[in-house]
Design brief:
- It is elongated and about 110 Å long.
- α3 runs antiparallel to α7.
- With 188 residues, the protein is mainly α.
- The longest helix has 22 residues.
- The chain has 8 helices and no strands.
C-alpha cells in the first residue's frame, strides 16, 4: 500500500514536471500583461483622418507663427542679407549671459575641425588637406563682425554648411562671442 502511494506520488510528480516543461517555449515571450508597452499601436503621421478639414493628420503650422524657443531671423540668405547682418546684427546676450567654457566646447566640436582651435584656419581637416582655403579670423580683408559670424553659422557660407540645426540660438551667440575672443587673441 505504501509502495503504491509512493508510485502514485512519483508518477503524479513526473506528469506535472513533463507538463510544465513541455509548455515552455524559449523562442517566444510568455504572457504579456500590458501588450501595448511591447507592441504599440502605429500611427501614421500623414494618414487620412476625419478629424481635420483636409483629411490629413499632419498639418503645416499657421502662417506667421514661430516655433517655441526660436525667434525670427530677418536676414535673407543672400549677399545683401549677409552684408546687412554684418553691419547691423548685434548679439542679444551681454557678457554675463555668455558661458565661455560651453562656447569653447561647442566651437571645438563644430568649428575647430576646420578653423582650428585657435581660429588660425589650421584645423585637422585643413592640415590633412581635405579642405583648403579656410581663412584665419584675423584676416584684415574679412573684417568679421558678430553679425557676419552669426549669419554664416545660420545659413552657411561657401563650403561651410549651416549649423542652425545643431546649435540653438543661444549656443550660436555663445560661439559668436568665442570666435570674437579668438579673433582678439590672434590680433595681439
Amino acid at each position: 500500500m505504501n509502495r503504491m502511494k509512493s508510485l502514485i506520488k512519483i508518477s503524479l510528480f513526473l506528469v506535472v514536471l513533463v507538463t510544465m516543461t513541455s509548455c515552455r517555449k524559449d523562442s517566444a515571450p510568455n504572457y504579456q500583461f500590458m501588450p501595448n508597452m511591447y507592441e504599440s499601436v502605429g500611427y501614421e503621421t500623414y494618414s487620412e483622418s476625419n478629424a481635420f478639414a483636409n483629411g490629413v493628420e499632419a498639418q503645416l503650422s499657421a502662417e506667421g507663427t514661430i516655433s517655441r524657443g526660436h525667434s525670427l531671423f530677418e536676414y535673407d540668405n543672400t549677399i545683401e542679407g549677409y552684408t546687412l547682418a554684418k553691419e547691423n546684427l548685434k548679439s542679444p546676450l551681454d557678457s554675463t549671459q555668455v558661458d565661455m567654457a560651453n562656447a569653447k566646447v561647442l566651437f571645438d566640436i563644430y568649428c575647430g575641425i576646420c578653423h582650428g582651435v585657435k581660429g588660425d584656419g589650421q584645423g585637422n581637416l585643413v592640415k590633412r588637406e581635405k579642405i583648403l582655403g579656410v581663412p584665419k579670423y584675423d584676416d584684415a580683408g574679412r573684417a568679421i563682425t558678430e553679425g557676419s559670424i552669426y549669419h554664416a553659422m545660420y545659413y552657411g557660407k561657401n563650403a561651410m554648411g549651416s549649423y542652425a540645426n545643431q546649435l540653438n540660438e543661444k549656443e550660436r551667440w555663445e560661439v559668436v562671442s568665442y570666435v570674437l575672443k579668438l579673433k582678439a587673441d590672434l590680433e595681439k
